[in-house]
Structures are given as structure tokens and as C-alpha cells.
Amino acid sequence: MNFSSKILEEAVNALSSLPGIGKKSALRLALHLVQDKTHKSERIAAALLKLDNEIKKCRFCHNISDDEVCEICKSPARSNNILCVVESARDVMAIEETGQIKGRYHVLGGVISPLEGIGPHDINIDSLIRRVQNEAIEELIMAISPTIEGETTIYYISKLLKEYNVRFTIIARGVSFGGELEYADELTLGRSIASRVPYHVHT
Amino acid sequence: MNFSSKILEEAVNALSSLPGIGKKSALRLALHLVQDKTHKSERIAAALLKLDNEIKKCRFCHNISDDEVCEICKSPARSNNILCVVESARDVMAIEETGQIKGRYHVLGGVISPLEGIGPHDINIDSLIRRVQNEAIEELIMAISPTIEGETTIYYISKLLKEYNVRFTIIARGVSFGGELEYADELTLGRSIASRVPYHVHT
Questions:
Q1: What is the pLDDT of residue A120?
Q2: In sequence order, what are the beta bridge partners of B64?
Q3: Terminus of chain B with fewer CB atoms < 10 Å: N or C?
């Protein structure tokens, strides 16, 4: 690409370093910002600088947070007895949308993946064990993606926690709402039959 | 969306103000930046601030430029006699890729569009007329999109320039390379037949 401006070229290179944004999209965004008369790029820059300088990880659950301790861990309305273990901050948001977790979270920050060189000590498992030892946790809900890496991580953690008196559960795997049975993979379909539950008529 | 962090929420709002980036993509980008350990968001912020503060429009052709006068207008290798009139800086880049323009450019910064409230004085037509009056321009090549608005703009400029002794040309409209005839719209196909050119065997 023949840029008429070094500054424009730098902006395009910076924007195209984001995942899913190629050179052409980056150029479109940069030209949009050049044309914009409301100082939009200044506002975006300010927000990104804050992201770099001010955002923290909660010292208890490792969720992203504006303070040392996140809103969920701070909340007195949350149960101390239930801990939902997730892979990422994105998963906390998705689960919070459901309103099904009355307890707190623990963000692993990844799953064990030998192929990518991620071992048990590269994710927040040690701090999870310490929480189980020191907090009044009764149930650990593993809300981890049912991938090979996810299953490995669940298995690994379950082994470490065998000696502790804590209920260890995983979220149900089964057919999705709105999904058609014939398109479900056989592993999921098989599991959904094995894990069948009594039917309750909602009145 | 239930954000656990105000800073994250602000970044998502800022990023989703960009065209083609929705809340979900913005969240994905923001979380990517939070995880990134190389200060990528700082680098992007710096590039965007430069874009806001330092980029200029060339005082001759209105193309985006790092200086008062753009590289193309500065270049002594460019012909003074040919002026290619385009809608946007993006079009200058696209045409420069072809290497077909040996002259200079004039960026209108839009086309006349009564529906969007863009009149002749909202785009750089006045300065174009002044250039025709004061520079040694022999040919004006209109490289404007063949839309209703583009055609209106070409017609309007052609009327203003009737009294000047300057060749007024438009880029050829016809079937695209690699396109199939049966899929070309009838206006384009009709025009391509009316504007047919002698066939030269390349040796």
C-alpha cells in the first residue's frame, strides 16, 4: 500500500495488530478517524491508555477489576460457600448474564495445554487450592469449556482436591436450546442421554 | 453486558464507536489488550493521538499528509499538466497503486449529495477551480465513482469549467477484468459497448 502519510501508516500498523483486523480494515478505521471532527481518536486513545495503566486483576479471584478487589468479591450479598471456576474474565461476564451463580468466581486465566506449553503452574490453580484450604468453600462448580484442554484441567484440579471435603461439580453438557438433535455431535448427544434429568411440568 | 470494570466498559464503548465494530467485537479487542503484556494498547493509543494531533491536509490537493504540502504535490517528477480529481484520500492510494497517473491529484473530500445535505460548497470544488485558473493544467481526469452523486458532481464541475481551455475526461466505465458478462448490470454493459475501443494485439 502506498501511504501518503507516515502517521497514517503507523496508525494502520498499530490497528492491524489487533486480532481480526487486517490492513484493509485498519486503513478504513484510520481514515474514518482522520475524517472525524469530534476527536474520536483522542477519546479512544485515552480509554486504551487507562486500560494499559489502571486496570487490575482482583487479588482473590483474578477477574479484571478497577480496584485491588473486584465488585463480586467485595459484595456481601454473594455466598462464600460456592466458587465457580472459569477460564477467563469473558466467561465471568457470560455467566453473570445468566444470574445463576450466587457465589463467587475464580478465574484460571487459561486451561492446561501441553501443546501450547501451558502447564498447571502457568494458570491460577495454586491460588485456587489455597482458597479451598482457607475459605469456607462447600462447592466448586467447574464452568470450563468441554474441550480436551478443558477436560484435562478439570481432571487435574479434581485430583488435587480429592483430600478436601468440597463438592466438585461440572456444568451440564447436553444439547443446546434451539438446536436440532440431528445436528448435535454424538458425544454431546450421548452425554445428554446419560445425564438425563427428571422432567418437571412448570405450573 | 455486565462489566466487572468501569475502565473495561469505557474501552469497549470507545472501540465500538468505530465503524463496523460492535459491542461484542469491541469487548473481544479490549480483553485481548488487557491480556497483552507488550503494552500494545499504549502503542495504539500513541498512534491514534498522533493521528488526531499531527496529521494535516495538503494545502494544494487536500490529500492527507504529514506536512503542509503532500509528497505527491512536492515531487518534481510529477507532471503539472494533469490533475486527477478524486473523492477521497483512499482513492488516491488506490490509483497510486495502478501507477497510471503521472500528474497530481485533487481530493474533493466527498461528492455532491442533496439527500445527505452535501452541496457544491461543502466539498473542495472552489479550490479546484482556482487551481485550473492559476496552474498550467491541461487535462482534468475525473476519477469519481459512477454513482448518481458522482455523476452529478462530474456534471456540476464540467459546467463550471466550460469556459476554461482544459481537457475534461472521465475514467472508462465498462466490464471488470475477471467479471462475467452475464452478471454485469445492463447500464455498465451498455456503456462498455458504446465506449468500445480498437483492439490491439500485444506483441
A1: 94
A2: B57
A3: C
pLDDT digits 0-9 by tens, A106-134:
999 999 999 999 999 999 999 999 999 99
Closest approach of A23 to chain B, Cα-based (Å): 13
Mutate to test the interface with A, among B1, B38, B43, B51 (most CBs of A within 10 A): B51
Residue B23 is inside which H or E element, if any? Answer: helix B23-35
Domains and CATH numbers, chain A: 6-53 (1.10.8.420), 67-198 (3.40.1360.10)
Please name which of B53, B15, B56 lies closest in space to residue B34, comparing C-alpha atoms. Answer: B15
Q: Can you tell me the distance from the alpha carbon of B56 to that of A178, in angstroms, rounded to the nearest whole number? A: 53
| pLDDT greater than 80 at residue B179 | no
Put simply, whether A38 touches B (Cβ < 8 Å) is: no
Q: Are A15 and B50 in contact (CB under 8 A)?
A: no
- Predicted local confidence at residue B185, as pLDDT: 84
CA distance B123 to chain A (A): 13
A75 to chain B, any CB pair closer than 8 A? The answer is no
Which of A5, A28, A32 is opposite residue B66, by nearest beta carbon?
A5
Contacts of A46 in chain B (CB under 8 A): 14, 45
Q: Is the pTM of this model over 0.95?
A: no
Closest CA to A86 of A160, A153, A167, A173: A153
Tens-digit pLDDT profile for residues A70-100: 999 999 999 999 999 999 999 999 899 888 8
